[in-house]
Amino acid sequence: MTDADLSPQEPAYFRAVLTPHRSLGPKGFMVLMCAVCAVSFGTGLLFYLIGAWPVVGFMGLDVALIYIAFKLNFRALRLYETVDLTREALTVTRVDPGGNAKSWNFNPYWVRLNLEQRRGRSTELSLASHGKRLVFASFLTDGEREDFAAALSSALAAAKSPGPG
Asked: For domain 3-20+79-160, which CATH number applies: 2.30.29.30, 3.10.290.10, 3.30.1540.20, 3.40.640.10?
């Protein structure tokens, strides 16, 4: 849903874009890869000088595998979810790393927001209505999920209340 899709009679009560936490940015990745390359080159050079030259290839393979692993992880972090609430609909849209979007619509008057505390595991945030259930925001931390649930719950209460937005 875009801003153009919302008519003036349909105020947005709540909008959020949820993204996974990224602990290593592009600059940090370059620093890390330079350090891995330096250690690998130094170790490979040492083995080459003592006559164990085949080890050099494995040191290069280690660097390549670390690079590929991080790139795959960065690709997976392109996932995000949007939550849009108006008086008429609560829409959750999940965009996967490949750019494919899938949306779920709920009636805000009938939807139940549930933050389930699971013993020994992280919490689970879900929406349920008319026999359908959607688990979302699974990449957030427990604290972030609790804060988001409180904010969305307040917005749902505001959307359900009679009167102007």
From this structure: 2.30.29.30
Q: What is the pLDDT of residues 99-129, one digit of tens each?
A: 899 999 999 999 999 999 888 888 999 999 9
Stated pTM of the model: 0.71
- Residue 140 near residue 18 (C-beta atoms within 8 A): yes
